[in-house]
Amino acid sequence: MKVNLATETKNILKKYGLHLNKRLGQHYLIDDSKRQKILSYADLKDDDVILEIGPGIGTLTIPIASRVEKVIAIEKDKKVATILKERLKDYNNVELIIGDALKIDFPYFNKIVSNLPYKISSPITFKLLEYDFKFGILMYQREFAERMIAKPGTRDYSRLSVALYFMANIEILDYIPRSAFLPPPKVDSTLIRLTPREKINGTFERTCRALFQHKKKKARNALIESFHEISKEADPREIVDLIDPGLLEKRVFTLTPEEILKISNELKKIIQCH
Ligand SMILES: C[S@@+](CC[C@H](N)C(=O)[O-])C[C@H]1O[C@@H](n2cnc3c(N)ncnc32)[C@H](O)[C@@H]1O
């Protein structure tokens, strides 16, 4: 049966007198065919425990809850959560946590399915990747998704692209136009599958941070200028001069993730011996 998700959503908002708050990224999905796609990519199984960040009024939560063992839904907005609680009264397999997903330790989950609030895209992605799970079906602002998968030498290549290159496998699944949301945001969205790979170490993270503060400079200058991000004790020039000079001559935005890893491994060894 074809569901008119737009009418259903408008009716719920009207019934509860809810005004959506753009600052909380409250753009609710109203395109049922896109919702079905998300659910199908999630490949839901009876024994799945699904984490959902920002369930809103339950557009994804309710159909997910009817197919899996458990849903953990974390919603920051108390008023929205009250509506969701009411809508979920016939479901005893949803743990609704009211709070900021960035500040809460996640209970066990094996998959995450979320239409994310875009403001927290970066910190929530890194937080998620601290956990072990099978995969996530996640909606991001299109520009952010492009930065996630950007290649060296391109405009979008960033600290995020380098870290995620090692931490996750990212596949673009679909593009979602702004008209699929109520109210329509100013940007289009991208649906991705994110599959965790390896965890990265602290030195690598700090090296990326130092380098990408000066994306267009040569690696040598970037490292010296932001060496405080890596170590406060060692003398920057003394340390940096011990790194492979071929790498130091390259501009930061042209370094491949493997080259950045090499720099960070060399730095780690040198600092340990110092
Ligand atoms: C883009 S809407 C998605 C709503 C619904 N899942 C959908 O697909 O229509 C994002 C939701 O995240 C909530 N939110 C915003 N910041 C949050 C945070 N830090 N932690 C948890 N929820 C948050 C918003 O209140 C909003 O309900």
TrEMBL record:
PROSITE patterns: RRNA_A_DIMETH, SAM_RNA_A_N6_MT. InterPro entries: KsgA/Erm (IPR001737), rRNA_Ade_diMease-like_C (IPR023165), rRNA_Ade_Mease_Trfase_CS (IPR020596), rRNA_Ade_methylase_Trfase_N (IPR020598), rRNA_adenine_dimethylase (IPR011530), SAM-dependent_MTases_sf (IPR029063). One of its GO terms (cellular component) is cytoplasm. Pfam families: RrnaAD. Keywords: Cytoplasm, Methyltransferase, RNA-binding, rRNA processing, S-adenosyl-L-methionine, Transferase. S-adenosyl-L-methionine binds at H27, L29, G54, E75, D100, N115. One of its GO terms (molecular function) is RNA binding. This is Probable ribosomal RNA small subunit methyltransferase A. It comes from Methanothermobacter tenebrarum. The gene is rsmA.
